[in-house]
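Researcher: Structure prediction, please.
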Amino acid sequence: MTTHDAVTAAPRATARSWLGLVVLLLPTVLLFLAMTVLFLATPYIAVDLAPSSGQLLWINDIYGFVMAGFLVTMGTLGDRVGRRRLLLVGAAVFGAASVAAAYAPGPEVLIAARALMGLGAAALMPATLSLITTMFRDERQRGVAIGLWAASVSVGVALGPLVGGLLLEAFWWGAAMLVGVPVMALVLVTVPLLVPEYRAPQAGRLEPLSVVLSLAALLPFVYGIKKLAETGPSALPVAALVAGVVFAVVFVRRQLRLADPLLDIRLFANRTFSGALGVFMLAAIALGGVYLLFTQYLQLVAEESPLRAGLWILPAAIALVVVSTVTPMLARRVRPAHLIAAGLALSTAGYLVMTQVGSEAGLGLLVTGFYILYPGIAPTMALVPGLVMGAAPPEKAGEASAVESTASDLGVALGVALLGSVGAAVYRLDAADAARTAGAGAEQAGESLPGALTAAEAMPADAAAALVDSAQAAFTDGLNAAAWIAAALSAVGAVLALVLLRHVPPTGSATAEPAAPEAAAVPGNADPKTAATRTATLKGTDREREDSGV
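Model: Predicted structure follows.
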């Protein structure tokens, strides 16, 4: 049998598979919609629950940290207990936590509920993408399905500002948390009818120590970065960073020794796999922090309503969807490295425009920069999932999907923590003198811009106006500083894409890339013919573990 015959022998998807795909796209759209909705709700949460600036950042980024911390565990768990089963559990947890977050009486409860939402999301994300790779075995159909999955991320981002603006205009901020409840209810009803179950045949037991080590590596490291950005060099954040690195080394060494590792470290020996993930993470860090500050500027400095803020974002979000949809078609003729690098170069230009924004008459320049940078991220979002999943063998789909989701979600969370903390630190430095004029509200005014706006309400008109002007200028300086860092990260990502992904051919190329040495580093993917034959015979080997679920 030739390689070509083996590949073409893969069964084509049925109408039920395509309906199942639509259902699997729903939670993906929701998870990213919920993230952007929260950014718009942040000023209202700040007023209603009166969190500190640190608590406000935790409300925004604890979701991403917990999600990123558990993604690898959940992806591997799905391979063992069933990806569909894990998806259903995740949907139930996410829905229940959304209700708890909506009615949180204080910042501590909201942070805890957001953490639980992150746990549910960690079960949902890898399950959706890995199920798609097993439902669509024909190579071309799988490419279309993964492309639609990537586009659904853009749709969620695009709908978030509009949905959030409408909800916040009509209801309280908790309505933004409840948007996921009906979607998750629909997922719980339809997934058992349309999506088959899948378990990896080689999956062994889930080793608890590896799970603990993965969390012990990730969470202290993230906490250390966050505290370092907030308070500067001190014993606690440095100790947390060192602890995270030490646990990461122990985790990697243990995974290399285990017969059934939580994460197959050998996947990273594939240059396409590791290069795509690195580029994706840099782009996500840059976007995550700037997006948060951008939405806050619209409402707290430009004084736009939530709906108008959402409408300002909408054109860029639509452009993101369009470019995300067109990019896979361009990738049939143009190398992915060139498309990704060009997009990130465009994003770099947009971030540089945002470094010039001022607190007065700066809205036009801010929006221009955002309209340039936002579509630039689309090629990365559209192409990286396919590159990562294509570099991993089918039996490792759960792990690969989890790692891909970890890179993007941890990147966004790190961006919120790192760039958000940089913005907050610059604000506290610049606003210190003006905050002292606030009397009893001096500490609140010096902590954050929402605090300054609240303190100004109790001051005489002239003093209040001076405080607000100074606080808005300090916030804008923080935005400028974050944009400089984002521009540097985006530029590095563009260069890395050209260097690390230059060997990847256009997806429509008739000739295979000479990547056998890389493929050999991944167990079960020793050569193209073996991989193709395995794909062609996947249906037969799945009989013992695949259940229609009807």
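Model: The chain has two domains: 20-206+262-541, 207-261.
Researcher: Thanks, that helps.
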